[in-house]
Specification:
The protein has helices at about 1-25, 30-35, 45-70, 75-100, 110-115, 125-155, 160-210, 210-220, 235-240, 250-260, 265-295, 305-315, 320-355, 360-385, 390-405, 405-415, 420-440, 450-455, 455-475, 480-495; strands at about 445, 450. The protein has about 500 residues and is mostly helical. A two-stranded antiparallel ribbon has the order 1-2. The longest helix has about 50 residues, at about 160-210.
Length: about 500
């Protein structure tokens, strides 16, 4: 059995590395080419790349695990994510694509903030870079943990070996192929994930005797597992508020900056949302149907987050099992590679070039970017040594951090020309600090940690937005140049959409 699985995985790894080599040969050896692919992504690659880099290992392991434990009460996460992603495509994507180009062809989010608010002292850039490194260290760790668990559960390898293999392959194609390799592999990985999330729950349903038999099995376990009720209002708000995070995820919104045309954003939105909705339904069904199957067969499952792995290795021929396990690797690697590249871009453009080597050549910056990919990956491997880390918990912490620190700033900066540099700084600091205090602070409410009462992105996002408006209105209005650039963005957007 293991031979067939290994063959499928070997083919998958070969394809990923081949794409990395192809992208290395095709990518221009300059910063724009390495970090944004020359702003030449097609709508389909933009959509699936954004989706695959977003959904990571939590969609095939974390979300099914949550459904396995708590039932449909967790479906509000999927609802919130779908609404948030749609609004992100509708509001942020077209304006950010135009504004980053108008604002001196900014290639990173911190660079865009600096130019948008004429921050000549680079304060915004430094703070953003710190936020990116801190929260992406947590986010990347979640992917490496998922990879370690996959190899440990499926191949009888040690957790540490799984961590090293996962990180090693991602670094190989990300460091050399850059943004083009990351986006192209994301597209392929998104297709694999899509097929897997339809196939696994469908076959499990068939083996259980259909929908009615599966429903009866779940009711026999606990009728409340199929109910959307019985969940508190705060729990629903916490779950649905995941959608707020989309506006501030650097590894997702950077895809919008790289699409070749604003006119093609509508096509990308339709492809991306179709992919996302079907995939989220599939992930939800994996957890619910997986619970029914394991109960009906008398099997046992130690780790609920491994339910997709269990079904993949139990219900299918080894060659197909290998393909399905590759879907988990695809989810994991697509997100890790995107996060590594964004962190690398920030370290290179926002710290190295800005403060250490202003006169660095494009080739030198690309080399620093590649070395940064390796350095961040090593940090993630070190942080992933705790085998008991929860994938969904790690992702939720980082998601809330970015959503609160950057989300309000990105959203408001694209629509409100009165926003000031001081307002942006206040929003970033207040958002990030609120999340960190909410998670790690020594505060409780009725004996519960604050993060157990309500998801930290809710207070983080709200307080960040309030800080932006209050501080912006209390400080000197933007310069005439800043205002004219804002108006240029609006007129350029209308021209490109005409």
């Amino acid at each position: 059995m293991q031979l067939g699985v290994y063959v499928s995985l070997a083919v998958y790894f070969a394809v990923m590395l081949g794409i990395g080599l192809y992208s290395y040969l095709k990518t221009k050896n300059d910063v724009s080419g390495f970090m944004l692919g020359g702003r030449s992504l097609s709508p389909s690659v933009t959509a699936l790349s954004a989706g695959a880099s977003d959904m990571s290992g939590w969609m095939l392991m974390g979300l099914p695990g949550a459904m396995y434990l708590s039932g449909l009460g967790n479906v509000w996460i999927a609802v919130g994510l779908s609404v948030g992603a749609y609004l992100n495509y509708l509001t942020v994507a077209p304006r950010l694509r135009v504004y980053t180009e108008v604002a001196g062809d900014a290639v990173t989010i911190p660079e865009f903030f600096e130019r948008r608010f004429e921050d000549h002292n680079h304060i915004i850039r430094v703070i953003c870079a710190i936020v990116i490194v801190v929260f992406f260290a947590i986010y990347t760790t979640s992917g490496v943990v998922a990879g370690g668990k996959l190899f440990e559960t499926s191949f009888d390898m040690s957790y540490q070996v799984g961590v090293m293999v996962t990180a090693g392959v991602v670094v190989a194609y990300s460091a050399f192929g850059g943004f083009l390799a990351v986006s192209t592999t994301d597209f392929v990985q998104g297709c694999i994930m899509f097929v897997a999330l339809i196939l696994v729950p469908s076959v499990a349903l068939y083996n259980l005797g259909g929908i009615e038999a599966t429903q009866a099995q779940i009711i026999a376990i606990d009728p409340s597992l199929l109910s959307l009720g019985g969940v508190s209002t705060l729990a629903i708000i916490s779950a649905a508020s995941w959608g707020l995070g989309y506006f501030g995820q650097p590894h997702i919104i950077v895809r919008f900056m790289a699409i070749r045309s604003v006119k093609e954003m509508k096509v990308a939105r339709r492809i991306g949302m179709s992919w996302m909705i079907v995939s989220l339904i599939g992930a939800t069904m994996v957890g619910i149907v997986g619970l029914a199957y394991i109960s009906a067969t008398g099997a046992s499952l130690k780790d609920p987050e491994a339910v997709f792995i269990f079904l993949s290795t139990t219900l299918f021929h080894p060659l197909i099992s290998g393909f399905l396990l590759a879907a988990i690797l695809a989810a994991i690697m697509s997100t890790i590679s995107s996060q590594l590249l964004v962190t690398s871009s920030s370290l290179t453009e926002d710290l190295y070039k800005t403060f250490l080597r202003k006169s660095a050549s494009p080739q030198e910056l690309v080399m620093v970017g590649r070395l940064s990919v390796v350095a961040v990956a090593v940090l993630a491997v070190l942080l992933a040594q705790d085998r008991d880390s929860s994938i969904l918990s790690l992702v939720s912490n980082a998601w809330a951090g970015f959503g609160s620190a950057f989300g309000p700033v990105v959203l408001i900066s694209l629509f409100w020309k009165r926003m000031t540099r001081q307002g942006a700084l206040a929003g970033i600091v207040v958002g990030a600090a609120t999340v960190l205090i909410w998670i790690y602070g020594p505060f409780t409410y009725q004996g519960q940690a604050l993060s157990a009462v309500i998801f930290e992105i809710v207070p983080g996002f709200i307080l960040s937005a309030v800080a932006i408006f209050v501080v912006s209105l209390l400080t000197r209005p933007p310069s005439e140049q800043m205002t004219s650039t804002f108006e240029l963005m609006k007129s350029e957007l209308k021209r490109q959409l005409a």
